[in-house]
Design brief:
Elements (H helix, E strand, L loop, with lengths): L3 E11 L2 H12 L8 E6 L7 E10 L12 E7 L2 H10 L9 E3 L2 E7 L5 E7 L1 H8 L6
Parallel strand pairs: 1-3, 4-7
Antiparallel strand pairs: 1-4, 2-3, 5-6, 6-7
Length: 138
């Protein structure tokens, strides 16, 4: 079973998320939206299928990264999140919350040994495609 299949997102704290998104749009060509930028790519095992990752600046006072005190959080794309969470629990990994399900995928947060909060995402890429078709960074 594959566990992590790729990077699902890079999240970081900043003083002014709107200004940061504008700067990256103007200077580096990121196609931005209210959350940041959605990157589109092709799956290596099934190259006819699109997949997505997210770049997202957060306000510096966000509590979304807690209990980590770091300025960033990485989201990893995973397969079979329920089975993975069971394996992580059995291995003694700190699971921060319960798996949450949205139309675009399932999410859960864990902690690594250095207290970095990690977001795991089992995506439903088809829904992301319908939400962001033509509005992605490629």
């Amino acid at each position: 079973m594959k566990k992590v299949t790729g990077i699902g997102g890079i999240f970081f704290k900043t003083k002014n998320p709107e200004q940061m998104k504008e700067w990256y749009n103007k200077n580096l060509g990121l196609v931005t939206n209210e959350y940041g930028s959605v990157f589109e790519f092709r799956k290596s095992d099934t190259p006819d299928e699109k997949a997505y990752s997210v770049w997202s600046p957060f306000k510096e006072d966000t509590d979304y990264f807690e209990p980590s005190e770091k300025e960033f959080m990485i989201n990893y794309r995973v397969e079979n999140i329920e089975k993975l969470v069971a394996e992580l629990r059995e291995a003694g990994v700190t699971i921060c919350d319960e798996i949450e399900t949205y139309e675009y995928g399932k999410f859960v947060h864990i902690m690594d040994p250095e207290n970095n909060k990690i977001e795991l995402w089992e995506p439903v890429d088809e829904v992301f495609q319908s939400m962001y078709e033509g509005k992605t960074t490629k």
